[in-house]
Amino acid sequence: MNLTDYLAAEWRPALGCTEPAAVAYAACVAAGQGQGEPRMVRLVLDARTYKNCHAVGIPNSGQKTGVLWALALGAVLTDPSPALQIFQTLTPEALARAARLLDRGAVHVEVDASRTELFIDCTVACEGGVGRALLEREHTRLTRLEIDGVAQPLLIPEANPGGTNSIREQVGNLALADLLALAGTLTEADRTRLREGVSLNLAMAEHCVGLLPPGFVPGADADPWLRIPRLVSAGVLGRMSGVPLTVMSLAGSGNKGITVAVAMALWGRQAGHPEARIEESLALACLLTTATTYRLGTLSAICGASNAAGIGIAAGLVKLGGGTAAQMDLAIHNMVGNLAGLICDGAKIGCAMKAMTGVEAAFRAADLALAGFGIPASDGIVGASGEASLVNLGRLAQRGMGGTDTEILDIMQAKLGSA
What we know:
Layout: H1 3-10, E1 11-15, H2 18-31, E2 38-46, H3 47-53, H4 67-76, H5 92-103, E3 107-112, E4 119-126, E5 129-136, E6 142-147, E7 150-151, H6 164-172, H7 176-183, H8 188-207, H9 224-240, E8 246-250, H10 254-270, H11 275-296, H12 308-320, H13 325-339, H14 351-370, H15 386-400, H16 402-418
Parallel strand pairs: 2-3
Antiparallel strand pairs: 1-8, 2-4, 4-5, 5-6, 6-7
Helix pairs in contact: 1-6, 2-4, 3-16, 4-5, 6-11, 7-11, 8-9, 8-10, 9-10, 9-14, 10-11, 10-12, 10-14, 11-12, 11-15, 12-13, 12-14, 13-14, 13-15
């Protein structure tokens, strides 16, 4: 693996929340196997994907929200090639066709609570055949395609972009020293790609300042400790509300991408660091966000925008400030000892508050680490090294908080049933 391959897999453009986009992508692929108008759409998905589709806005849809709309819209679209940018192709005609499917009660969603990884299994019955598309583990990783129950070759280019899962696993198993070394191998093309993501994500954040109360996000001359987390919050709020601007996602999450890119770029520029140094620190922040995501799971019981992205930012800021690998360990300890347990209760506008909390915590964690202070290994789930702390955090998320996810899902479904 090299950094170019990593960025191709983990630093990817997305329009709107990635989970409803993945649902729509699967529905579009499935519908494309048949002929004529969709008659019935059925989706089976894991609980965490459902959780992230429950209340989030869909871009270009006239403020539609949720998994039923994502599924119906995907079933009437004809071109899956935009993948996670599929909602950029919405038209008034597609909205009307999707509404008719919903009005007829032809769209059905089931949650398979036994699935612990991302799982999106979509079947679309059309006038001329039944198509099925199965995505597993990653948002566009197509593992099965069927026409009328017969398996088909997986010939869709977007299905396995850059071997995403393999790269995430590789990054997740690298030591911090190896991540640092990898971050130092940026090519000019890699730097251009990083800058593209920063521009996209800053544009979303600045565009959406008006969604927050007047004066909540102060001007460019304000204290960066105050301005930057609030600007991150604006960007995440816009994305969760369905604002139709493309962002650069990170480790399968646009919120992680916004959080890391905006925080790292603006902090570095405010401090007057050279762009090349900011880019190398951003690369480390991205890599560590991916490594943490691997430990937590692609979708998790723990908030990734605050924990995974926050941990990435904390380590990246230590590198930006000239700190050592040992101080990066301290920054990771400070984040794990502080924010572990901040739950993910789905993708929705409240994610804006959690992302802001993660950035604020990352600033504190890095500042303390650069001063030589870190939460000791004798405390709670903090480990003897940064890597050990991440292992413990992953254990908490994947094994310890299964009951939390079950209760969150039950609460969501009860709310849906009483709506």
